[in-house]
């Protein structure tokens, strides 16, 4: 039965108000300016605000009554510490305000204004495929000076990523991930080709085939291309649609979130939407090795030695370190074209979470200029990243002696770094390469980020592209 992707259609919640006409004022106020602001209001409104206990905490809202109902609202900015500790706090107003159009009033820096507008759009996301969940109906008038189309492209791309990650593996296997990619391609007049099943062996993708062959859901390599001129950008995303751990079976508690193990694929697809929707002048390629790491008599085994597309032999010391195997074949293919920029995104290691937590994904690159551009863009886009090193002294850890490489070095230390070093071995021709070890999941609700799937790094990459590529 064909997959139903009607839930991936863009929703009205992911856009701004169509017009400023009849928009009510949303007045920004800091705690230290609250009393002076109240003094400027009609007495009845000021008393009503005080009765609500409003103290201008970050993201808090106080409605202002008028003769015909609510005629405006105050929106708290919070103190400096609150603004530093929490992203997108002003987006809380999106769910607290009544239906209708709202227009910000008050002074914000350009970066803060961008965060407020983007956060409002992101707060409109709801995953309602399996149960109804009404999106907020308050709409923001896009503030002057901001690129509305670009902000909406960012929000729609993020919604696409979240939808893909949130969909359980029962409805998001390799076939469905390919269908979602084709849906995206059709929208943007891109081309998609796929190599699947035993054709992976015939066309020299042995590690993708080895990881996916145990599942009745056919493994494949999905290849999307878009754009006819400009510099070349290739995105590679890990598409492990469910990860049991293989014969090194995960315990149940560790398996519960493994529908998100295709978060790298979901994120590069969301980023691809942002790039294509904004009409970036480049040639884009997206490669997704899509597999399910299952258990059967045909499972690849601990101790197996696989020969990769690159020709490097890999000793399998843990079948639960499968992501780097499928990525290696995809990266080798990408590297054969030597694109101007090659980016890999994957929910790859628990070590990255131990080091930096769920909210701050590390990235790796040998290019200092690229690293600086990504770090600056992460700050500007409200999409945090942290550079980690390709630490050469750890290279011996991934060299087992019996083969060229070890997919799971013993000892358990520096796991994110050794995984990144493993992937770098498959990129030898491309001048600029970056690997992102993302989490792809929001463990608890936060402003503009409900609990569930989340894209990480995509907006930062999009923001950095003009400096590093265009």
UniProtKB/TrEMBL annotation:
The organism of origin for this protein: Thioclava indica
Domain Cytosol aminopeptidase: residue ranges: 318-325
GO cellular component assignments: cytoplasm
Family annotation (PANTHER family): LEUCINE AMINOPEPTIDASE-RELATED, PEPTIDASE B
Entry keywords, A to Z: Aminopeptidase, Hydrolase, Manganese, Protease
InterPro entries: Leucine_aapep/pepB, Macro_dom-like, Peptidase_M17_C, Peptidase_M17_N_1
Protein name per UniProt: Cytosol aminopeptidase domain-containing protein
GO biological process, one term: proteolysis
Residues making up the signal peptide according to the UniProt record: none
A Pfam family matched in the record: Peptidase_M17
Record's keyword annotation contains Protease: yes
Listed GO MF terms: manganese ion binding; metalloaminopeptidase activity
Record carries keyword Hydrolase: yes
Record family assignment: Belongs to the peptidase M17 family.
């Amino acid at each position: 039965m064909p997959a139903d992707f009607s839930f991936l259609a863009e929703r009205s919640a992911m856009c701004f108000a169509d017009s400023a006409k009849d928009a009510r004022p949303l007045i920004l106020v800091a705690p230290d300016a609250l009393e002076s602001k109240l003094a400027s209001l009609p007495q009845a409104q000021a008393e009503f605000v005080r009765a609500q206990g409003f103290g201008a905490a970050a993201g808090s809202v106080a409605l202002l009554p008028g003769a015909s109902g609510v005629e405006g609202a105050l929106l708290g900015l919070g103190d400096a510490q609150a603004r530093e500790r929490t992203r997108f706090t002003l987006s809380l107003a999106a769910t607290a305000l009544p239906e209708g159009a709202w227009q910000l009033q008050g002074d914000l820096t350009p970066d803060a204004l961008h965060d407020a507008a983007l956060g409002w759009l992101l707060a409109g996301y709801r995953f309602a495929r399996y149960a109804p969940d009404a999106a907020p109906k308050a709409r923001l008038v896009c503030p002057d000076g901001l690129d509305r189309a670009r902000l909406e492209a960012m929000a729609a791309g993020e919604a696409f990523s979240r939808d893909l990650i949130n969909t359980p593996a029962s409805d998001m296997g390799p076939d469905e991930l390919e269908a979602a990619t084709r849906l995206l391609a059709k929208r943007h007049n891109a081309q998609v080709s796929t190599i699947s099943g035993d054709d992976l062996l015939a066309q020299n993708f042995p590690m993708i085939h080895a990881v996916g062959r145990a599942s009745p859901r056919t493994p494949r390599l999905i290849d999307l291309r878009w754009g006819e001129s400009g510099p070349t950008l290739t995105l590679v995303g890990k598409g492990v649609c469910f990860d049991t751990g293989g014969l090194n079976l995960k315990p149940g508690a560790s398996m519960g979130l493994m529908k998100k193990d295709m978060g790298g694929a979901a994120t590069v697809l969301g980023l691809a939407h942002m790039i294509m929707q904004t009409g970036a002048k480049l040639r884009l390629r997206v490669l997704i090795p899509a597999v399910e790491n299952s258990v059967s008599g045909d499972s690849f085994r601990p101790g197996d030695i696989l020969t990769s597309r690159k020709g490097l032999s890999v000793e399998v010391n843990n079948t639960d370190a499968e992501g780097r195997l499928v990525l290696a074949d995809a990266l080798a293919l990408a590297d054969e074209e030597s694109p101007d920029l090659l980016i890999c995104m994957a929910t790859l290691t628990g070590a990255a979470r131990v080091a930096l937590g769920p909210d701050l994904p590390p990235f790796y690159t040998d290019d200092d200029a690229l690293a600086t551009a990504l770090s600056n863009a992460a700050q500007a886009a409200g999409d945090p990243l942290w550079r980690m090193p390709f630490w050469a002294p750890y290279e011996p850890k991934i060299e087992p002696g019996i083969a060229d490489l070890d997919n799971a070095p013993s000892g358990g230390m520096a796991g994110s770094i050794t995984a990144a070093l493993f992937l770098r071995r498959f990129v030898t021709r491309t001048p600029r390469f970056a690997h992102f070890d993302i989490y792809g999941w929001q463990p608890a609700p936060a402003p503009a980020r409900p609990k569930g799937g989340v894209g990480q790094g995509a907006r930062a990459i999009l923001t950095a592209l003009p400096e590093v590529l265009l």
